[in-house]
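[User]
Protein folding is very new to me. Any chance you could explain this protein sequence and its structure tokens? I have pasted everything here:
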Amino acid sequence: MSASSNLPRLLVWLVGLSFWLVGNALAANPFARATLATEGTIYAGQQIEIDVDVFVPNYFLAPPQFPLFDLPGAVVTMPDDRGMNLNETVDGEAFSGIRKTFVITPQAAGNYALPTIVIPFGYAALPGQTTQGRVAVPRLKFTVAAVPGGAAGTPGVTAGKITITQTFDRDAAGLHAGDALVRTVTTRATGLAPMMIPEPTFEAPEGVKIYRHDPVLSEERTPRGDIAAGLRKDAATYVFAAPGTFSLAAITLEWFSPATGKTETAEVDGAKVVVGAAPATEIALAPPPPPPVEAPIDWLWWAAAAAAVLAFALLVQLAANLAGRLETWIGAALLRKAHSEETAFRHVLDACRDHDRTRLESALDKWSRKTGNVPLAKWVDRFADPKTQSAFARHRQSRYGIAQSGHERSDFTRLRSGLKSARRRWLEEFSDDEAADELPELNPLFDSTLRKSR
């Protein structure tokens, strides 16, 4: 069969291959999705979580920028700025993803829909090249129900659990007229942001003045850094101008629990305050004292005092100058230490110890640029042992390569010991090179002639 007869078949095969490659390239496009993480019925005033995921083929080269959007009738926050890394296979294509969680508190019952959210990012559409991309998040819809038994259209208070505690700054039964008593109430709410916790009601008995303090809002976090509950601390000062027995009212807070579907009540007891009469002060009658006698001015004492003050001022000035110089010297030493090659490599070892691939890549890049060992793979091939070279290659594959049937895992223990040994060999060779580069004497003939003439 001649070559000319095979030419049409070859052309058809090449055209089909090009269409197949273009189809695969178009199929592997970035995409986004939004998921309602909170399960069950959603009630007005309840804090819910929505996960927003962005996926790209291969891997990210510039992280996605998640905007904090506005949703009418709801409060939107993003309490944790950290993202969760994801890996997923879609139609046989490997995708890398990043997730951010938004916390939304709808203020009234009704239907809600996320606005159009556009997220920009950079990714490796082709290995080694940055492609700028943008995806629009699908408009997730959800329905919010009114709190049973509550007024229609009002959010009320919806939380996982609310507890209230109180303290007093002194014994409420041992006061006297004119004294003050500080009452501090702390409200802890799970599943509720601190700013959404209602303000407690402090009622003052008749004849008692009350002064409110500014509230203190905070968050209780788990050892991992996750938000466990919102905290609100309120304080009020009661001032009792007259003696008597007074009753401070209890403080209650009603809230709806989505878990039980019932309205619960959190409460702290009131307090009984007993105020006694102010202690009497006795006024003694006595003859007026004689007029004071002016003492003569002791000039010698004043001169000695002025000299002592001057000496002390000079001593303070000298100490300040020495302290400033010492601080400058210490700051310069710490700055040199922070920017040294040893500190840069210490960051590499710390990243290996913590099994943090992102920090390891950043630390290796900074160390190699500082020492001039660019590209780093060439330095590893020269100074590292074969096992370390293999572990470094696997680490790069797991970091930048496309995931296959099984995930490549970085051998951080091997990398830590192997890179440490490679650096030691590099430092030894570097020191030998410096010793060999010492310059010879300048003008040796001229120096010998000069010595003979002498």
